[in-house]
Each structure stands twice: as C-alpha cells, then as structure tokens.
Amino acid sequence: MNTLQHDKYDAVIFDLDGVITDTARYHYLAWMRLANTQGVHFDEEFNEQLKGIDRMGSLERILMAATRQYSLAEKLALAEEKNAQYVSLISNMTPDDLLPGAVQALDSCRAAGMKVGLASVSKNAFTVLDKLGIMDKFDYVVDAAKLARGKPDPEIFLKAACALDALPARCLGVEDAVAGVASIKAAGMTAVGVGERSVLAQADFVIPGLACFDLNNY
Ligand code: BG6
Ligand code: MG
C-alpha cells in the first residue's frame, strides 16, 4: 500500500443504501407499489432520481406525477404506508446481505488509520446496520432524524466530518446516488461514486461496487 496517498484523507464517510447493502432495491420496490396505487408510472429511471432523497422528498416527487392534489394528512399516511412495506422487506436481513467487498472496504479504512463514518438519510439506517452486524465498524453514524436538510444539501456529510474531527477537504465520501455525490461535492470532499460513470457524472472516481474499493486509487 502507498502510505503517501493515504495521507490525503483522515476520514471516509459511506452511504448505506445501495453501497453497503442492496436496500436501494427494497426502497425501489416499496415506492413502486405506492406509485402504482396512486396511478403513477414508476420505473428504474424515475427511481434513479429518488436515490438518496429522504422519505417525504421522495413521496413529493412521486405525487407530482399524480393527477390530483394531496393533503398533508394523506401524504403522511402514504409515507407511513411505504415505510411499513420497507420495514417488512428489511425484516429478514442478515449479515449475508452485505454487498461484496463491503466489510473489506470498511476494514481497509480503519487499517489505514482513518476514521469511518456513515451518512445515510434513512431513518431505518440504525436498524439495517444492526441487522448487518456492522455497527462497530463505524466511528460515527449520522442520525437522519436530526437533520434539517437531506441530500443533495451538504449538511449530512459536514456533520459526519465534524463528528469525526476531520476537515472536509481531508474526507472521502462514497455514494451510489446522484443526490449523494452532489452532497459530497457541495461539502468540499472527494467523491467515490458506486455505479455507472454516465449516471454519477459529478463523482471524482467511479467504481462498480465496493469489491473494487481501493484507497490507493483515490
Ligand atoms: C436513502 C435512500 O438512503 O434513504 C432513499 O437512498 C430513501 O431511497 C431514504 O428514501 C430515506 O429512507 P427512510 O428509510 O428514512 O424512508
Ligand atoms: Mg444510497
């Protein structure tokens, strides 16, 4: 390993859904079901814009494509319905649901002397981390319930950097969502996108998955 390159960062801050585990798929299925009940066409392309966007923000985007207006009470009920479906989909998750290379990527950061953070806007993040059995691999996990603004606002990554005592310029952010990469860049950090370069155009580096995560390359 090239220690000179590791000197560039003090902390690595990971997104959860779609990076460490494939819960992005469960969010997609739950939103698809909700959209269908409201007569809104929903597909992978629509879903791409929702990745990294918080629950109410995602719902608003779906309902914008509906033919009628919704009251706040109706919106809250629909958000609750989606979450119940999502919670049921994640109920049987185990450490087997970690994506390939996820544990190795987290461990490689610690081994290189860096702090490890988690920046997910999901209010279910603590439950998912617990089911995956990886809570102890993080030095700090942002509590999404305490955020004023979701991604693409930089708040979540800046909050993680501050808690990890790292300057934003010395942080690496790892994200699968367009909004998440925008959040990392707005925070003044280096972004590793997980997915496709054509989608994650703003990322500094793009890898297909954490199995390809290598600190020597960033
Ligand atoms: C993000 C997902 O991590 O969390 C989004 O990418 C999701 O798809 C958001 O909407 C909020 O999750 P939750 O669990 O609070 O509804
Ligand atoms: Mg994600």
UniProtKB/TrEMBL annotation:
Binds 2 magnesium ions per subunit. It catalyses: beta-D-glucose 1-phosphate = beta-D-glucose 6-phosphate. Keywords: Carbohydrate metabolism, Isomerase, Magnesium, Metal-binding, Phosphoprotein. The record marks 120, 151 as: Important for catalytic activity and assists the phosphoryl transfer reaction to Asp8 by balancing charge and orienting the reacting groups. It is an enzyme of class 5 (isomerase). Substrate binds at residues 15-17, 31, 50-55, 58, 82, 120-124, 151. InterPro entries: B-phosphoglucomutase_hydrolase, Beta-PGM, Beta-PGM-like, HAD-like_sf, HAD-SF_hydro_IA, HAD_sf, PGP-like_dom2. Mg(2+) binds at residues 15, 17, 175-176. Signal peptide: none annotated. NCBIfam families: bPGM, HAD-SF-IA-v3, PGMB-YQAB-SF. This is Beta-phosphoglucomutase. It comes from Pseudoduganella ginsengisoli. The lineage of its organism: Bacteria, Pseudomonadati, Pseudomonadota, Betaproteobacteria, Burkholderiales.
